[in-house]
Amino acid sequence: MKIILKFFITLFMLLLSKSQFAQVGIGTNGPDSSSALEVFSDSKGILMPRLTTIQRDAIAAPANGLMIFNSTTNDSELNIGTPSVANWIGVKTNNYFAQLGIGTEVPDASSALEISSNSKGFLMPRLTTIQRDAIAAPANGLMIFNSTTNDSELNIGTPSVANWIGVKTNNYFAQLGIGTEVPDASSALEISSNSKGFLMPRLTTIQRDAITAPANGLMIFNSTTNDSELNIGTPSVANWIGVKTNNYFAQLGIGTEVPDASSILEISSNSKGFLMPRLTTIQRDAITAPANGLMIFNSTTNDSELNIGTPSVANWIGVKTNNYFAQLGIGTEVPDASSILEISSNSKGFLMPRLTTIQRDSIALPANGLMIFNSTTNDSELNVGTPSVANWIGTKKPAFPMIYSDSGISELITSGAASLAASDLTVSPSKGSFLASFNAQMSGATYTTSSFDSSIGVTHLKNLYNELTAYAGGQPHGLTFGSGETLAPGVYDVAGGPSIAGILTLAGGTATANPIFIIRATGAFTTSVGTKVLLTGNAKPENIYWVCGAAMSTAANTIMKGTMLGGGAGAGAVSLGADSELEGRLFTRLGAITLGANVLINSPIENNPVNLGTLATFAMWSSSGGVSDVATATTNGDAGTAAGVLSMTGMHTGTAYPAGTQGGTVSNISTTTYSIFVNGIEIENSRRTVKLEKSLISLQTMVTVATDNTPVEVRWSVDKGSATLTNRFFSLVRAEH
Hints:
With 737 residues, the chain is mostly beta strands. Helices cover 8% and strands 37% of the residues. Among the domains are: 25-98, no CATH class; 354-394; 403-447 and 669-734, Jelly Rolls (Sandwich), CATH 2.60.120.760; 452-663. The chain is built from seven helices and 64 strands. A hairpin with an 8-residue loop joins strand 5 and strand 6 (88-90).
């Protein structure tokens, strides 16, 4: 009994002593100064009274703020009502915190959560990397503070495949969009909203001035002055300026620290543009009292728009959908009737885009007529070229001549030539684009020819025989050719009557463009049946000559190449056997020429290495003897005789000249050609051809000279005979100005 009495006395004294303390600590001897009760433990929690819903509702007059654990709903509950009318809310079953303010009883209407403090921050759950990775199915958007990396982290992955990114260790926010998942490519930060704004930290002037070393560029909202403020000073000497209380922005430069003196606002950039507010037509029309001159980008019409109406009666016009700017006046409400754009000012100028030469040349497909100010050359420039081939010209006086010219001093006579020859008119301008002009008087563009005469044919064949027999360098060869033999170019002499059997190859090789083959014999020439003369390399029929002092004949089915000339020293009839082919000519000085059945002769049309004179177009000619074919023969080329009967009954293409044909001299008009060359290369489409005896010659074309002192010249030629040029004048007029 004494023991029990002693216990109660001790307990009473203990409670009496405790009631003297306004602060109580459980698990700590030093409760926090701001608390009435602090419960501290590293291993245990606090257990509130556990009641069912029925037991909770049986509490008489529960106090406002009374807390219990409801074992029916398995939720902590708080009475936010009065003792007479209780209102129990649970942590997990009640939406009371749809808007929550921490540090403020009235969170901002546009926020779900507002944390307000002048002295404290927000502490996220602190986990190591191991603890973070042990989280089961972390939600997309879950945030923690990683104490291993000392970095705030965000899961941008999925619950099944987490992807943690840190504020300081990840470049995910190199481009950040708020209210948009795809920020504009030209922006580092884009904030997009149709209903909310951007809320800067709100500080009083006293709180602002208490910031330690505020950074240059730091921005706050001053709730004392009700103004947005910017520190344009340094961390050690702050200089706060406000949007409405400071005239710092009387001139504003974006992208430049020194806006042009004549501008209120200058936006300078080589890579980015200006992004206006983007609104749909519905959002635009919802603007309250839009100011006259207000500009937006209408994402419905995909057009920039301007309100030219009043705040009460808006009138939105678009750049592409409205013809309001068919005439535009800047600085004047009534632009001149002849102008699309009139800029009027008594004190300011027009500032074109300023680019260096490198930046100008980086413009993709600059339009014809595009203008810029070149800061490298300190000159306004205009593209007079095309988008694909720009040609920039400046407005400053050029430092080079505008006109280059040259004139001929005396008559210039040119003789027939296959190619254009350089004349005496050449100028060497500095680089640029020019209009080239050439003028001259041409006369005497003629040449003479003689129509065929039988006596002249005799003389020309004699001259040909003498030229071929006089060729030096002859080497001896046996009487027999062919049977697989290959003969190199050269002169071959045969003592007696040569013959060809089987296949004979004349190998022209590639070392010489027109190798010559001359085979000379004193006796009669023959071939075996089916003989073939083949050509390889550069060997050509017009460069092959079979010369014989006597008769020449081929057996049936022979294929021959070259000119066959017989009867050089005596009687020398020439004939081709049936079904033979000759790519060449049949000539004889004394004797008849005959063709067998189905013979084919094609006279060469290329230039000859020896002088055939008037016989160059002939397939058959006899200076003394008849010339005849048969009905089944085909001859391509002229045919004739000086003494004898000419009988062409087969297929004949060419002119037939019977014995006694008389000819004479004929005057013909030459063809002259003119063209302009730059550095030895002909200008495309500058060539002109004239087939007149005399004429005024005029050429005009555009030329481009890439480097200084490049020669530009006129070249000309006459195909046959000669022609004379007088009063020659060649000029280049610069086209850039």
